[in-house]
């Protein structure tokens, strides 16, 4: 009994009939699907699978686990009896392929050995098997198969350098006066086998192994070991595939597509993976093996040609494709081989597809009654929707990529190069399209960024100023372009030997991060036109618009998370509303202090007396009020969270260096530096070594009397004005960078006074809440909730402060190394770090709600529009996410998907 239990527990080998598609963890994707096809009664060559558990045991101990050898023997015997042949039998050999197959597809990363079982004796048996009647007609095929085995086995199992075999093959062709493998006859190939065996012996110090079972065992071991091959490790890191899954090994009876004109090999898709359209898609190559298709030695023909070549196999293939699609309820891709008129199915899987195809297929399958809308929603994702929302370059002319950088804000932008914000505004005013090129951007560049089609910088990553602001505006941005040398003074940049002057045209791709010189044609996005309201889904003939409309509509029905937007202008607010935003989660007020208001801010900072300061504040008040009136009007009836000013005030003053030079030059000339002198002293006084950790956010409000009060008054007066107009403004005042409840309480006392004063005539409800973006705020959320009517997580700062990473520097400086080392798979500024920052979020949610039940909680950091992070925010019970206007549809979709996935309706 005990012994029996032990064997069941350590079942390392499965016959195809024992598996199914849901056992991918254990049998790998390829093995699980081969098992599924076998059980569907499709013609799969017989075989068996060694499990990922066996691989993991081997990798842990360096030896095959106990029991594996016997189980392989048992399954091999079953395979031999099914085929009526023995492995490597000299008279009539069974040959097998030994292929890797992990849970997730890792194309070309691991090893495969074909024709296992061939040796000096069985090669003659194979020749007989392969002969089509004429004496010696199978010889060429058999010797070619044998030389392929030695080559693959030598290279993958014994690390013989592949070039040596290639050179020997080239020598044989040269001796024959040809460049085509097919011109080598049986004698040439027999001689080549001799040469290959010598190469094998030279490198391994032993002869090529003759016993078939030894070949098999060594090949299995090589597949196990290929899990940790350098390229496989790298691929897994890039694709974020866990390192400890191991690979399964598929051992399958060989079938041959290269036995003559009635044999061949091909690939097929049940729908077009590019568009999702129904039809027959694929390629076929007669008299060839799969490897020949990959090598591209001969041209394939469209799959439809097979109907003419071999109608019986073609019809059977179409029937099998329909069976598979009906069974998997999805696009399947298929590899098949025809051996002398007999069709064999070698592989299938749910096929990869473009973003457009993903939406179209999901929608068609709902129409066909194959899946429901929940499943359709599960089958698409926000990253795909985001791709569909950007205009794209038409690359059919193959333009040259002159450099690449971080695709920081997607899209395709074309325009004339300009190097200053002022020039961008000037040229745009003349109707020119411009690309603003800077080493890096700062708040001063904002007008130029608004005027430009796109932004190109030499420094910075996905959370640099340029990236964050550009994403907020939905503007194309390429950051940190390699080898981009920007010379603003000379009005040019150089890159890889090219010199680009102001006025020259460039094209930047903010999705791929590619820079092109000259104009590359651009196509607009139909999906954006739909969200903008200029395409009516009820009458649209574009299937993509119809599909997106239906699926996102379902997401809206099922999602629990609300979706707001980060917007600072009426225009952004209006667009976000069209895109489905249900309010503003973050209105940053600092942009409202730039441009011609800068001088007022200077006066505020330089004020020496209370009355000077009040004068400046009084001048700012009506301007601020007008800003809020515009925004509240666009968001009528929906909540608008206005954040009081956050960044250090010195950001609004001129640069220390420039001023110092000005003053010094004036003094040198004996002139009076005038106002500059006082300004310089103020800039010096306010200079900070670490401004991000300095006088900003609530600290600023507590230090500069009247500043927050002016903003609170502007917000409340704007709301009161709209109430008087019969509208429904819903202002929420948010205090940034709070770390202690006392900070918030101090601001609150002053704010409440102003609010009650202003609202005496027109009742407006104004909520007061705080950002949670300092770790201490998260850790004392219970106390802070006593003074806050809402929380909004500022996950940009929370990430910065939890990790101690400067958000403006690290991505461009060293994140590449961290990603390479696998310290994280994706920048924590892009996708929320669940373990660390996420833990702070959970603590704050739990303790905040414990102290104030029903506390409204959202997030307004960049993560609010990141698909993975949206799922996390759903999971921890936030009320809403807030993101840039262009990400609103993505967040809506993902908020819906989060519900479907957490309710476990993942049926695949
Ligand atoms: C944040 O820190 O996440 C946030 C939204 O504020 P900002 O990016 O303006 O610092
Ligand atoms: Mg912040």
Automatic annotation (TrEMBL):
Its EC number is 2.7.9.1. Residues 555-895 form the PEP-utilising enzyme C-terminal domain. PROSITE patterns: PEP_ENZYMES_PHOS_SITE. Pfam families: PEP-utilizers, PEP-utilizers_C, PPDK_N. GO terms for molecular function: pyruvate, phosphate dikinase activity. Keywords: ATP-binding, Kinase, Magnesium, Metal-binding, Nucleotide-binding, Pyruvate, Transferase. Its cofactor is Mg(2+). Residues 68-299, 306-358 form the Pyruvate phosphate dikinase AMP/ATP-binding domain. It is an enzyme of class 2 (transferase). The keyword Protease does not apply. It catalyses: pyruvate + phosphate + ATP = phosphoenolpyruvate + AMP + diphosphate + H(+). Residues 432-513 form the PEP-utilising enzyme mobile domain. Belongs to the PEP-utilizing enzyme family. This is Pyruvate, phosphate dikinase. It comes from Polymorphospora lycopeni.
